[in-house]
Each structure stands twice: as structure tokens, then as C-alpha cells.
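dude i think i finally got it to work??
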Amino acid sequence: MVVGRSRRSFSSTAVASLKVTRRATSSPLFEPLTRANFAWFTINYRLAPQHQWPACADDVERAIRWVKAHAKEYKADPKRIALIGESAGGHLVSYIGVRGVGETSVAAVVPFYAPHDLELQVKSRPALGGSMTALLGLTELNDGAWKTLRAASATTYLHKGLPPFLLIHGTKDEAVPYEQSVKFQERTKSLGNRCDLHTIPDGGHGMGGWEKAHPEYVSKLIEWLRLTLNATK
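look at this
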């Protein structure tokens, strides 16, 4: 998702938010973002195995370029764009967030329960799994496979000068280990970047299960976006 601030808000400049999703879907974030006066856009990307890596990443980059080119039509500021993504979409926004330059750069990144490090993700199972096979065309874990996994991981491209990150992850996520966010935060901050982590105690994979026990994650996200994007010059 791309999110942006409306000119009718307390900021005189609009901000946009992009939510990256596998398919057209509703989200617990849409209504709160609208109420908070953000302009938001959803991105549908091509799916594997019909379209293997890096087709999905290319689609996200195209979407960022499109939103920047059309931002004024939606009263959004192309310099204040945030990327938001869940799970596989979280992997994409993290990957694009650390690699973006020029037309594909963004002002903030919010990955929910994201596999930032695909090598770590495979080792935590330990197996390739159907999703990695479909996405990357891998059939066995050999030297070439590990190289491919690293090349498609956000952690490989970490460097100083990244946009601020907000990681949101549950401690009992059985699909993407909570460790993914902890390690990503440690490495990102060690390079001098801002990387905040909002932990959902006992939270599983998927924000749908958090709404009753931990609804505060939505207000935390909105507050973080407001402060971060309005600080962007």
C-alpha cells in the first residue's frame, strides 16, 4: 500500500501510502487510514509460479512511479510516500524500501510480519517450501540456491541512509518467525538508520487475529506515519 497525507489535514502537504497485496482485498487498515486523512493506494502484483522473481518487485516499483506521477491528482505529496505490506507483501516493501533510489525511493516503510531474510526463512523450517520454489524457481538447497535467496533478501542490501522503518510482528508467528523482525531491526539500526519494532505479544501470522486482543497496533501505525511523514522535507 502507498499512503499519503491529504492537504486537508494538519499538514499543508499531502502524503501517500501504498499497501502491497497479492490480490484485491479489504484490510483493517483502510478505514483508519481514511479517517486519519491519508491518501492510500493498493498494489496488486503478478504471482508466481506464472511470473517468477523479480516480476512482483518490478510491479511494486512501477506502482511507486505511477503514484508519484499522479500524486497531485489525489492531493498527495510524492516526497512523502510510505510503503506498507503484509507477509509476502512485507518482503516486497522491505526489499524495495532498502533498494529504492530516485523514482522508486520512498519516505517510510512498514512491513508486517515480513521475511526480510529469505536465507533465514528457509533455515528456520528447514526446507525450501512451495512458496520459494514457485517464486524463485528453486528445487534444491545447493550453493546456487543460497545465493539466489540472498539476492532476493532485503537484508542483503542494508546500508546507511535508509528511510525509517516500522516493523510490526507477533511473537507467536509460525509462518514467519518473530526473529526475522528482531534481527532486521538490529542490523538496520547498527548502520545508523531508524528502525522501530512494534511487538504483538502472542500474536500469530495475520493482523486479522490481533483485532480483539491487540487493537492498539492500528493507532500505533497511524501515529508513526503521521510523525514520520510530516517530518519529511
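Residues 2-230 form a domain with the Rossmann fold fold (CATH 3.40.50.1820).
im so relieved honestly
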